[in-house]
Each structure stands twice: as structure tokens, then as C-alpha cells.
Amino acid sequence: MSLDPRLRLRHLSVFLSIARTGSVAQAATGLGVTQPAVSKSLRELEDILGAPLFDRTGRRVVLNPAGAAFQRLAGSSVAALEQAQDAVQQAGRTTRLSVGALPTAATRLLPDAALRFRELRPDCTLRVSTGPNWLLLSQLREGALDLVVGRMADPQRMDGLTFRQLYTEAIRAVVRSDHPLVAVRDATDLGPFPLLLPPSGAVIHQTVKSWLVSIGAGDHSGAFESVSAAFGLRACLRSDTIWFISEGVVADALEDGRLRALHLDAPMIAGPVGISLRDGTMPSPDLDALLDALTGSA
């Protein structure tokens, strides 16, 4: 079957932007065009394909199964076009890899691997993006990222992706070094202290939520929600906040004594940390070198 001659690159750009943001308004802002223009392009694309691509819920739009399948293939096609353009425009110059880093990998694993990679491939620029799990995986599916490093997402978020485990990592409840609970043999009783919890959408959100329920603290609402290393560290150092976070995010602060991990008689389950790739990815020499560097740094 030949490509429909009505299909234009703008249709794909609009679709992919809506798929990433879940919002026509945000897509319009990101593309620098009006909302009616974005809505018109989406209607044209759905007419061309003969099927709706999103389920509408108020002002939000969510990919339906047809949209999810189209995102994977259309995103890969746009990424291939961008790579072809780069290959011509950057002939004889540096290459580039785009990597998504989840918080647990952004503090140690990826920086260490990036330095190893620099020695192996000095002519390749490594562009590192951070963000919530759902956004990075969406960008990976459509080819905007070459790989994502961090905790494995829930199985339903891994459609069209593969995962290579590097190691397992615990979730810790951490506090400042002189926090009242540091000396407690079993600090599972969280008392009146404010909690800093992973927000909905974070990979560790459900694990922490389930743990709180298991110790009878399911109604203990968080004072703060974030997985930001900078925010969490300062909040802990300047208050009695208890921060639930992947160990890798706070490894340096635990080693140098700024933070301490609480002793919990009911520890949280460790989870896999590794590399997410698109199904069927054929590694380039640059990507192979980065995979080796990540494996060597784990």
C-alpha cells in the first residue's frame, strides 16, 4: 500500500506533540501555533487514517490502542528522517546520542557512564534529558530519545520497549543526620514528621504507597511530593522531613553523612534499574559504546 499523498510532516509533528503532552493546548504552545491549527491538523490526520487516535476526557486526550501503535511507528519514522538529515548536515562532524535519565540514574550511574563513553567516543555528543517516567518513555517510543536509564516502569508502560537490567536498588526512607528517628531501632512509626513522597507517575510511587498501607500509615498524606534530588536534600537538611526515594538518588549524601537511612523492620522491596530501548533497536557504534559504558559503571 502506498503512502497517502495527503499526509504531511506537520500532521506527524502535531500528533507526536499531542501524544507527548496529552493536551492540544500544550502541543500548540510547544509548536508555536494556535490551538485551532493543532486541532485541524489532528482532524485531518484522523480522516486520512480513517480512525481516531485519542480518547477525549475533558481537556485531556489519551492515546487509544491505534494511537499508541501509530506513535511508535510514526515517531520512529520522524526520528529516522532527523537522523538522515543529521547524517548529511554533520558529515565529518560530531555525532549525537539522546539519553533520558530518571532520578535514580542521574546522580551517579549516568554521569560515570558518560565519562567512560567520552573516552570511547570523543566525537559523539551525549545529550541528557531528565523528566517524569511517562514523558521519557513516550519520547523513547517516538525516537526523540535513543534510550532511557533508570528504574523499570510498570509493565503497562513498557509497550513497544525492552528493558536490560543492570542491578537492583532499594528505596530508602532518609533523614538528616541528627533527626530524632536516627537512633530508633525500628523507625517504622513515622510519628508526626512531614513526609516527602514520590508523586503519582514516578516509578516508585506505587511501591511507597503500598508500603505505607502495609504498616498502617496509608492515610499519612505527604507534606511534599517530588523526586528532585536538589529539593529533597535541602528539605531534609533544613527540617524533620522523612524522604522516600531510590537509594541511587541519595548515594553521595548517605556516604558523606549528610543524610541517614532509617532502620525499618518492614523494608521496601528493591526494584530493577537498567536501560530501556525501543523494540528492534539496531545499535550504532555510538550506542553500543554507551551500552558498554553503562554496563561497566553499574
From TrEMBL:
Keywords: DNA-binding, Transcription, Transcription regulation. Belongs to the LysR transcriptional regulatory family. InterPro entries: HTH-type_LysR_regulators, LysR_HTH_N, LysR_subst-bd, TF_PcaQ, WH-like_DNA-bd_sf, WH_DNA-bd_sf. Pfam families: HTH_1, LysR_substrate. One of its GO terms (cellular component) is cytosol. SUPFAM superfamilies: Periplasmic binding protein-like II (SSF53850), Winged helix' DNA-binding domain (SSF46785). The keyword Cell wall biogenesis/degradation does not apply. This is LysR family transcriptional regulator. GO terms for molecular function: DNA binding; DNA-binding transcription factor activity. One of its GO terms (biological process) is 3,4-dihydroxybenzoate catabolic process. Residues 7-64 form the HTH lysR-type domain.
